[in-house]
Amino acid sequence: MHSVKGILQDHNYKKLIHIDSSIKYKKALIAYIIGYFYLHHEQDHTVIFNNIDNQLSIKFASELLISDVEILKQQDLIEQNNIHQLAILFGQPLPIIQSKLNGLSDNQFIFYH
């Protein structure tokens, strides 16, 4: 059984995000939940996040958290395919970095910086 990582509450036009305080990558989780809200959420529903596995929401979070300019400044690490070092440098989990790099290679950008 997975523990609850976050909750998105939407009731009477009020939106609340609750996250587990022990989560290491709080900003990434918040960005993921915001992405889920804008891409998939229905009005007046509560969503519980046990897994971070929705690819569009991960992509949204990667674009929100890491600008194209910031990631392209790390061309040496990108060419070395050093994803772990990029994750440490940006303080983000691997799926966020991988999604951002996939967007660069596929020329799929959600936001232009």
Quick structural gist:
With 113 residues, this protein is an alpha+beta fold.
Structure explained in plain terms:
With 113 residues, the chain is of the alpha+beta class. The protein has one domain (6-106). The protein has helices spanning 26-40, 55-65, 68-72, 75-79, 83-90, 94-106, and strands at 6-11, 14-19, 46-49. Strands 2-1-3 form a three-stranded antiparallel beta sheet, covered by helices on one side. Helix 1 packs across helix 2 and helix 5 packs across helix 6. The radius of gyration is 15 Å and the shape is elongated.
Q: Whole-number radius of gyration?
A: 15 Å
Q: Tell me the series of helices and strands, N- to C-terminal.
A: EEHEHHHHH
Outline the biggest β-sheet. 3 strands, antiparallel
H/I helix tally: 6
- Main-sheet strand order equals 2-1-3
Notable traits:
3 strands; elongated; 3-stranded antiparallel β-sheet; 50% helix
Q: Which helices and strands occur, and which strands form pairs?
A:
Elements: E1 6-11, E2 14-19, H1 26-40, E3 46-49, H2 55-65, H3 68-72, H4 75-79, H5 83-90, H6 94-106
Antiparallel strand pairs: 1-2, 1-3
Helix pairs in contact: 1-2, 2-6, 5-6
